[in-house]
Design brief:
- By secondary structure, this protein is an alpha/beta fold.
- 29% of the residues lie in helices and 28% in strands.
- It has 2 domains: 162 residues, Rossmann fold, CATH 3.40.50; 137 residues, Rossmann fold.
- It contains 8 helices and 14 strands.
- The chain has a 7-stranded mixed sheet with strand order 10-9-8-11-12-13-14, with helices on both faces. Strands 1-4-5-6-7 form a 5-stranded parallel sheet, with helices on both faces.
- α2 links the parallel β4 and β5.
- The longest helix is centred in the N-terminal third of the chain and has 15 residues.
Length: 312
């Protein structure tokens, strides 16, 4: 009997439908059909509208707030497992709940670990994600994790800006490794912001370590939530003599008063990817990650190397 080649099929979660369409177009496969029915109380059910028996399926869905996005991914994975899919890859451009990656005070959960275990329990056999809040989250999984870096998208854009006297900045101590990686690639200087928080999303004090006088500064971070840190850092750097301040953030959560802060800040440009849908804004530049994910998915399916996509 002839050996049957495993097919690859791509399916979207609702929250990432537009991105999934772009990824499928770049991959060269049509987007699979999924029906989601909702009960009057808000409970919903996923149903694949085509056979996936024996197939390798890619389920595309970021798990940004609220919690129903994570629940939809889990239901999609479980439905695929029960429909006899051979390989189930959760493609999560933004891995939500990642900020809770350790116990930083008594009696709190490690949500990132919990999410990892939930995905595996649902039936995911592989995870593809980008710019995790902390690299060590990969170790929370017993399944393979392909952790991609958005630097492969951002670096060509930054080089095309043609900025002289470029300085890369980290908005906090935790992002210094990422900032140094960008500075090495761009052969630039590095400065670091030191901040103290009164509580989550509230900064009580910020200081700048390094000189930005007469420099074009680019802040680098994995995500932007309320934009409080970025806008405060940008204003501080302009006060210290910077010529301009831009920011690179992979995941544009942009919650609360983020858009208002962005409008009122001295930040010249906020450069993000489309891992999370965002509203148009005059200072927001969105670069698509669709081609990157499509290429990695294709190589994973055809057992080809993806090591070049792990380089910061």
């Amino acid at each position: 009997m002839a050996k049957i080649k495993t097919k690859a099929k791509i399916f979207p979660c609702r929250q990432s439908h537009e991105l999934a369409e772009r990824i499928a177009k770049s991959y060269g496969e049509p987007l699979g059909k999924v029906d989601i029915s909702t009960y009057s109380d808000g409970e919903f059910q996923t149903c694949y509208q085509e056979s996936i028996r024996g197939a390798r399926i890619f389920i595309i869905g970021s798990t940004h707030p609220g919690p129903e996005h994570l629940m939809e991914m889990l239901l999609m994975i479980d439905a695929a497992k029960r429909a006899s899919a051979r390989h189930i890859t959760a493609v999560m451009p933004y891995f939500g709940w990642a900020r809770q990656d350790r116990k930083d005070q008594p009696r709190v959960p490690i949500a990132a670990k919990l999410v990892a275990k939930m995905l595996e329990a649902a039936g995911a056999t592989r995870i593809i994600t980008m710019d995790l809040h902390a690299d060590q989250i990969q170790g929370f999984f017993e399944k393979p994790v392909d952790h991609l870096y958005a630097s492969t998208i951002f670096l060509p854009y930054v080089r095309n800006l043609g900025l002289d006297n470029l300085t890369i900045a980290s908005p906090d101590m935790g992002g210094s490794k990422r900032a140094y990686a960008y500075s090495k690639a761009l052969e630039s200087d590095v400065v670091i912001c030191y901040k103290q928080r009164a509580k989550a999303n509230v900064i009580s004090h910020m200081e700048l370590i390094g000189d930005v006088t007469g420099r074009h500064v680019i802040l680098v971070d994995d995500m932007v939530d309320t934009a409080g840190t970025l806008t405060k850092a940008a204003d501080l750097m302009m006060e210290r003599g910077a010529l301009s301040v831009r920011a690179i953030c992979t995941h544009a959560v942009l919650s609360g008063s983020a858009y208002e802060r962005l409008s009122n800040s001295k930040l010249e440009e906020l450069i993000v990817t489309d891992t999370i849908p965002s509203k148009p804004h005059e200072k927001l530049k969105v670069l698509s990650c669709a081609d990157l994910f499509a290429e990695v998915m294709y190589n994973v399916h055809h057992n080809e190397s993806i090591s070049t996509k792990f380089i910061m």
